Amino acid sequence: MSRPTPHRRRPVAAVLSALVSAALVVTLGACAGSSASGDAASEPAGPVPTAGEELRLVLSRQLTSVNPHKGGSPDSQGAVVGSVYEALTRITPDSEVAPSLATEWEQVSDLEWRFTIRTDAVFSDGTPLTAETIVWNFQQLLDPEYKGTTGAPLRKFVASVESPDPTTILFHLSAPALDLPGRLWNAYIVDPTFAQSHNIDTESLGSGPYQIDTLDLENGATLSPNPHWAGDEPDFAKVRYTVLASEAQRVAAIQAGEADIVLNVEPLSLDQFADSSVYETTLGVGPQPLVLAVNEEKAGTPLADERVRQALNYATDKETIIEGLFKGAVEPLPGTVLFEPYQEEAPGVEAYPYDPDKAKELLAEAGYADGFTLEVDVPSGTYVSADLASQAIAAQWKEVGVDLTITQTPFPTWLDRQYGDAQKGADLVYIMWGGQYRGGFQLFDPFTSDHIQSDVVAPEFDDLVRRAQAATDLDEQRDLVVKAAELYREQAHTIFLYPSPFTAVVSRAVTWELRPSRYLYAQEVGRA
User: Fold this and answer.
1) Theoretical Cys-Cys bridge with 338: which of 8, 51, 343, 412, CB 3.0 to 4.6 Å?
2) 356-369 average pLDDT score
3) pLDDT score of 164 more than 70
4) What is the pLDDT, as a whole number, of residue 27?
5) What pLDDT was estimated at residue 40?
């Protein structure tokens, strides 16, 4: 399909340009001591700084809990929980699976894995973390009645977990899982006695490098080292996580020198700090795809029609958004949620081109030549440029007769709405989903029909994903993955946008190996 001629793009580009200009005025105006042009912010602020006693890390989302069995966004409690708790494995900053509580592992057969575990792990109150502790945790996670959401994916293929001796954990599977070690990275281990006698939504006891001293779900947390931590002593004796849910707040904190690491800064704001002697900036590609998740379960929704979903993909000019808001740092998703360099792309699957004429044609075929209205729910202050991107998409869809109403919701409420009744949910959700490690096709999980946050109806895709994840041969698995990607693109069960831009502003006083997944673990930050 050829790209449309330039004159069709001008109205959208003009709208986006206006949005960008307005955003720059708001952002720069919020920065203490900066001029409207940003010149003052570009000048060196003085000598390279020295790290203080307290490490200051900024999160962009409110915490919903610190329950390690309920998962957690990298931009909120995921960072805190991962600094306090340990799992059998961990994911490195470059997306590789590495040892944590487990020192090594092997696949004994298609349906059995053996993990060798450390014997030096101790909870911060001095309680040893044993093999029996680990087994108890997985028994909870595998119980369908248990409220821990990280157990739901495991129950699809893990039958039971046992410990034949103090250094061994055996996983007995109901279906093969070639990437089992990677899937265990956030199955964090809690102390059974503590978990049964305390509210682990707001209280914590972990075996990781840090312990939580104070917790304010809306505003952040303070941490100090776990006195019984078995690993290398962390560089900072005090850590403060501060929630700054708006771009203006985050930029103001950087301008005032009140933070050591800030992620999720608008790419258009980074230029202010280009010549700073205090901070370094990064703009790159993150490992998770950004999409508009589709609610196909809602009664009477036009989104139940495949042609409508295809039309909305054709009506979305991703390249203009990328150039205008992300400074060209990413490329449109290639018609699938698999993209380089984090996953091998499916050959032959291509991005939907911007073609508003094709979109109008499909809408007419589906009986919607006169258009309709949809609602998109966007989490406030969460994703880079999400508010501006959603406004640009609304302007683009307006050209094909679709009115897009934008609802901006605080993160906890936004999340609760997704977990709730699909009939009361938004038609579309601006969301970032994805895997954490290379080569693992758990990336597909949130796009299947039975995921806790999914409202799609995709039985054929679900079947291909189940078969791919249960494959015992890598070539067979790859073939099934490609077929799944092709089908999802054809049936358009999502509106494909672009990979998540990764932005970071990091004080020169600290060292931090960039983690594009955005999990800001305190133990990974050192003194420069």
Assistant:
1) 343
2) 98
3) yes
4) 37
5) 33
d(CA 122, CA 136): 16
Distances (CA, A) of 34 to 18, 20, 22, 285, 498: 22, 18, 16, 28, 32
CA distance 4 to 196: 61
Token look-up 């994903």 returns 465
- Give the residue from 464, 432, 428 showing the smallest Cα distance to 446: 432
Determine the Cα angle at 243 with ends 240 and 246, to 5°: 145
The pTM (predicted TM-score) of the whole model is: 0.87
Contact assessment for residue 378 and residue 245, using Cβ atoms and an 8 Å cutoff: no
Give 265 or 453, the one with higher predicted confidence: 265
Q: Tell me: the pLDDT tens digits for 216-233?
A: 999 999 999 999 999 999
CA geometry: angle at 174 spanning 173 and 177, to 5°?
55
CB 60 within 8 A of CB 263: yes
- CB 376 within 8 Å of CB 404: yes
Rounded to whole angstroms, the Cα distance separating 459 from 453 reads 16
**Cα–Cα nearest to 499, from 326, 324, 330:** 330
Contact 92, 276 (CB under 8 A): no
Least confident of 101-115, 288-302, 412-426: 412-426
User: Which position has the token pair 């931590």?
Assistant: 229
Which has more pLDDT, 409 or 367?
A: 367
pLDDT, mean over the chain: 89
Nearest Cα neighbor of 72 from 228, 234, 204 is 204
Sheet holding 158-165, edge to edge: 102-109, 112-117, 168-173, 158-165
Q: Which residues contact 291 (CB under 8 A, 6 or more apart)?
A: 333, 337, 431, 432, 433, 494, 495, 496, 497
Task: Determine contact, residues 470/175, Cβ cutoff 8 Å.
Answer: yes
- pLDDT for the residue numbered 22: 43
Among residues 387, 360, 236, 276, which one has the least CA distance to residue 34? 276
DSSP H/E element including 18: helix 10-29
DSSP states along 279-308 = EEEEEEEEEEEEEEEE---STT-GGGSHHH
Give 499's strand partners. Answer: 289
Three-state SS annotation for 184-223: CCCCCCCCHHHHHHCCCCCCCCCCCCEEEEEEECCCEEEE
C-alpha to C-alpha distance for 335 and 313, rounded to whole angstroms: 9
Each residue's pLDDT tens digit, 235-280: 999 999 999 999 999 999 999 999 999 999 999 999 999 889 999 9
